[in-house]
Write a structure and sequence with these properties.
The chain has 551 residues and is mostly helical. It is 46% helix and 11% strand. The protein has a 3-stranded antiparallel β-sheet. Strands 13-12-14 form a 3-stranded mixed β-sheet, with no helix packed on it. Strand 1, helix 3 and strand 2 form a beta-alpha-beta unit.
Length: 551
């Protein structure tokens, strides 16, 4: 009995050869230098920050070279697969406008190299595994979980490297006849790769981020087909990246240890492996330590966190771009009107040790982006967000859209627009005092500063409303503020106050703070005159009247 007979016994219905599949999936007809990249998540949960980080790099590489960026659904781990995870992946990519050129959405396949869902490519993998068996580079393994666990215990006891290799690979030297008989008897088995590597020998590998690295050769007989007939990640990645013409693989540095296995698999198939970009871990500062962002502990690890809180799409992308390449911020400052898609990404300009992701930095980026929006843009984007995440903000916008936009527009059209909003879920916290129903029902803490005496506060409010209230013109309004100060013994000119503070009860800034706080409860708000204009005299009088009635 030959290896070919064993292969036919295991795969009696597989008639296509690897040459047949090469014809079905011919080499891509792309221009010289075009890169083919893939985002290949497993549908086992939410899209995490590191995943989007890598997808951005995939898209940049493909776009800048007139290449192809495709999405591959690596769903061979059926035990961990979650219902709806593929839809979540696609929805996340669509939301962040990182759409691949080729992908699969349920039964709809976009592209000529599909199906792009691995569980639908089972026959293809079987043809390649069959070929590996035929050439003696794969074999059936009948070791039970209990036997493998015992093997690990013995290796740990003997203080040797754990794994299925060398003399520990007990099924490796089983005769073809014995293997065939056990298969015919219905014994459960898996298929392992037959490694020819020597762990004592080393080879050099060039990672596009980390440079040249030296590894020991692989000598592990890894599993390439599980008992359910589906391939493992290692083998599926070999077949798919080969047939789909992948030129560059972007993945986390935790996969570096798999490089010897993957290089040997590609060499066995006789094809050139893709170039690898192993991205650094995304880190966060946690107190006095810097650690890896955790999917379990850190809510910001999930891309849903940014959507739920209402960070603009552009802000999240920009914040990731700053850690993707060290020169991005300099480029963006010099090219403020260009899209990040115009940036020339370079793996050499990535950190090789770890990328620190800072939510404070994201907030600053987000504030800048929101400050540059027109009132119409901010209204539209915040309403879209509110439809899913804030019924209260949605109600406020719908009851008077123009009034809402006018609130947002205060200090928006100036040379240095206000930067007090970092995300859409902060909007109500910044404008609630502009709505009577919120103002009246909220438990308020008035942030008076220098002037805190209740009788003095009442005196300022009464005098202002009785003699100096005027909103027809900002210059008139400000001159009235100065006249109010002069009457009550406050300096109407800040220069005079700074030179001789002992001559005054306080300054015009102190008086305007009283008027601001009594109206909004806050000592820091956008332009007071614009707030007063929007509220109008009747509402201002009501709020000041309530302050005057406080005993």
């Amino acid at each position: 009995m030959t290896n070919k007979d064993l292969a036919n016994l295991i795969f009696p219905n597989i008639t296509k050869t690897i040459e047949d599949y090469r014809k079905i999936y011919p080499a891509r007809n792309l221009s010289e230098g075009a890169k083919v990249t893939r985002f290949a998540p497993s549908p086992t949960g939410f899209v995490h920050l590191g995943g989007l980080y890598q997808a951005i790099i995939d898209m940049l590489l493909a776009k800048s070279s007139n290449g192809i960026f495709y999405l591959r659904n690596e769903d061979t781990d059926k035990v961990r697969e979650l219902d709806g995870a593929l839809k979540l992946i696609l929805d996340t990519l669509k939301y962040y406008q990182i759409m691949p050129n080729e992908y699969q959405d349920k039964d709809k396949v976009i592209g000529d190299y599909g199906p792009y869902t691995q569980s639908e490519r089972k026959e293809i993998y079987h043809a390649f595994i069959k070929y590996f068996i035929e050439i003696g580079r794969a074999y059936p393994c009948f070791c039970s979980k209990e036997k493998l666990e015992k093997l690990r215990e013995n290796q740990n006891r003997d203080k040797v490297r754990t794994g299925y290799y060398g003399k520990y690979a007990t099924c490796k030297n089983m005769s073809i006849e014995e293997a065939a008989d056990r298969i015919k008897n219905g014994e459960e088995y898996i298929i392992r790769f037959r490694s020819l590597g020597d762990n004592d020998k080393r080879f050099k590998f060039n990672d596009l981020v980390k440079g040249e690295i030296e590894f020991p050769e692989n000598d592990l007989d890894i599993v390439i087909m599980k008992a359910d007939g589906l391939p493992t990640y290692h083998f599926a990645h070999l077949v798919d990246d080969y047939l789909m013409g992948t030129t560059h693989v972007v993945r986390g540095e935790e996969w570096l240890s798999s490089v010897p296995v993957h290089i040997e698999l590609f060499k066995t198939l006789g094809v050139k492996p893709p170039k690898y970009i192993h991205t650094p871990l995304i880190m966060k500062k946690d107190g006095d330590i810097v650690r890896k962002i955790s999917k379990r502990k850190d809510p910001e690890a999930s891309m849903s966190y940014y959507k739920e809180h209402g960070y603009p799409i552009e802000a999240v992308i920009e914040s990731l771009m700053t850690i993707i390449n060290s020169n991005y911020e300099e480029w963006h400052t010099a090219n403020p009107d260009k899209s990040y898609l115009d940036f020339q990404y370079s793996p050499k300009k990535m950190s090789s040790s770890g990328a620190l992701y800072d939510l404070d930095k994201l907030s600053n980026i987000s504030k800048n982006i929101i400050s540059r929006m027109t009132k119409e843009e901010l209204c539209e984007k915040s309403y879209e967000w509110a439809e899913s995440y804030s019924s209260e903000l949605k109600r406020l916008i719908e009851q008077d859209k123009n009034y809402y936009m006018n609130i947002l527009n205060i200090e928006r059209e100036q040379k240095k627009p206000r930067k007090d909003i970092a995300k859409y879920d902060e909007i109500i916290d910044n404008i609630w005092y502009m709505y009577d129903e919120l103002f009246e029902n909220k438990e308020k803490a008035y942030e008076y500063q220098t002037i805190t005496d209740k009788e003095e506060i009442k005196k300022i409010l009464v005098t202002y409303m009785d003699k100096y209230f005027e909103l027809t013109d900002k210059d008139v309004w400000f001159n009235n503020m100065k006249a109010l100060c002069d009457e009550l013994g406050y300096a109407s000119n800040m220069k005079d106050y700074k030179q001789n503070p002992e001559n005054y009860k306080g300054s015009v800034a102190d008086v305007s703070t009283v008027l601001r706080v009594a109206l909004t409860t806050k000592c820091m708000t956008p332009d007071l005159y614009e707030i007063m204009k929007l509220l109008g005299k009747e509402r201002i009088e009501k709020r000041y009247h309530n302050i005057k009635n406080i005993s």
